[in-house]
Amino acid sequence: MNRTTFFLSLIFAAISVLTNAQTIKDSSLLTIDRIFASREFMPQWQKPVRWVQNGEAYLTIEMSKDNPIPGSNELVRYESKTGEKSIFLPAEKLIPEGKMKPVYIENFTLSDDESKVLIFTNSSRVWRSNTKGDYYVYNFDDGKLTRLGAKFPSSSLMFAKFSADNKFVAYVHDFNIYKENFETGEVKQLTFDGNGDIINGTFDWVYEEEFGCRDGFRWSGDAKNIAFWQLDASKIGTFYMINNTDSVYSKVIPIQYPKVGYEPSACKVGIINTDSDNIKWIPVPGDKIENYIPAIQWLDNNRLLIQQLNRKQNKLTVYIYDVPSGGLKKIYTETEKTWVDLSYPDISASHWGDNDLPVIDDGKTFLRLTENDGWRHLYKIDIETGDKKLVTPGEYDVASVTRVTNKKLYFIASPHNTAQRYLYSVGLNGKGDTVKITPDKYPGINLYNISPDGKYALHSYSNVMDPGEVDFISLPKHKTLITLIDNKDYKEKLSKLKLPEVEFFKVVTVDGITIDGRMIKPVGFDRNKKYPVLFHVYGEPWSQVATDNFIGLWNIMLAQKGYIIIDMDNRGTPCLKGSEWRKSIYRQIGRLNSHDQAMAALEVLKWPFIDKDRVAVWGWSGGGSMTLNLMFRYPDIYKTGMAVAAVANQLTYDNIYQERYMGLPQENMEDFVEGSPLTYAKNLKGNLLVVHGTGDDNVHYQNTEMLINELIRHNKQFSVMPYPNRSHGIYEGANTRRHLYTLLTNYLLEHCPPNSK
Fold it and tell me: How many Cβ atoms are within 10 Å of 628's Cβ, its own excluded?
């Protein structure tokens, strides 16, 4: 070794030692790369389950450990009482004829007699979800695996479902409904006019996004009829997005998207007789354009329950249609001065489920959550008389319904702390006390998937500093039988980090409004120092943010850097604080919510440990809109803003959402203008970063371009980051999330520096 090589080796050795020391020193601190680039922090997730035999067991999807083909999966059965595991459908049974690899199971359903499994695979995205793909049926009786719709192109079927008599599967292909015979393989087309403008058996963009409607047909219990939706979207305006990056020539992407104030699709419901294939249209009263039909369901083999909502969404009407006689009867009407909710936005329930009404008492009554008495309560509605009977009495809100058994209702509520959620039960007869089921040792967010018989459940739990676990429990005593997901490795890695403290608080604004908030304190918090504050906001009727669930790694990283992070819920958010709280925002989106946030922020800024000169705010979607409104309306409070995927002009958003909460612009245009950030863009004083995906089919990128023009007009300087072809979630493409959060972090560090004073 010569002298130069020797000295170089010493230098490299020293660098290596220093680097290792630095790595060891900083192992308690998070970085963007550790969060988004490495696979260091990988929480476990509970896969969806299907209850079988009324809850005696459940099925789930697991990777195949014994199959020699890597990446294959299979269906596994667990006995509820004992936890005993068995292979229900092994991967080797799922190899199509002439193929080498098994079908990869993305989702599955069972026939009513559990003799067949319908497997969904090779899916592709339609709007928000992967609802188009290939379907295979595995028959336990003969061991055969059959691909449905084999004559159709790959990945082109939607919503395949077994008939109750176990002879057919029906599905949607190219906006038409088909049925396929298992025994003969015969495929029969049932509707013929579907073409994209006419939509059979599925929905347009806005029905899916705002009503959670995806699957647009229903088999009757005797398999003699199929009820289905038909939408006429021929008059819906087309919004064009442009893909500029995948070719040297740009590609136009058209979307049928009804903007606020413009007519929605015309909707009607038909009944297909599966023997004659004749279609009978149900004469639901009212204009087909000025009324929505967000739900249909079979009561029995002959009667269909239909929910109709007027365009302003302040009147819900429920009808029963008798198929043999063709008679239609109105059985229930509900009205509000503001709006009637179908599926209630809450952290305990999916925003995108069906809108069916639970039917009980052998089809004599149904259950309906209403807010007519000032609280969100569940009522039994007599189908013959329309009489209402309160099931959940008391001055509290029902957050969501979890399970209805023969005698008992399980629901989520939190009467004393709107940041948390717990399981309760009450008898369906309206007698007896309401009982809290969740033990006190689980303070935070508790979610449940309860078996049909009400004896077992999957219990998911988390709080601000606990990423959570999933336990299999027995009810009603809430006894843990087995822990399915413990996140032990994830929690162990978290425990080695420098972690912040989290505090819940309340402030009373100058208007006398009590606002609930959550504060993530900087690591090593010292009340005698001053810290920068980052407000995270949403503030519209579709989400609550100051909740007792895990705060996430990015917030932990910011707290390590010295930021206070605050979430607050203004009036109009879905807090469990009564109907008046939630519905006070009617026709005031952009005004009342931003006012509450700003007035609450002024109270927070009175705290001696917060630096009033370093105040930042950020949000996504409705939170992006809120960020813009706060920066423009209250420029002396907020110095730095980061708005992601924001609605800058309320007139660009879809009609179902915006008209539900704001009315019709033909009647109160001034509310839409006054509530839009665009109107006040001229007031910008601070640092503003605007981020948007150009392929956002939800909040269109045109919002950002309109905002850019307005800011230019007033000579306001700002920063903007378009993400080409990314959707509302800005996640598509390699490295996107890492890049996005690097951008947000660096912008915050530059314009609202974190050092304490």
Answer: 29
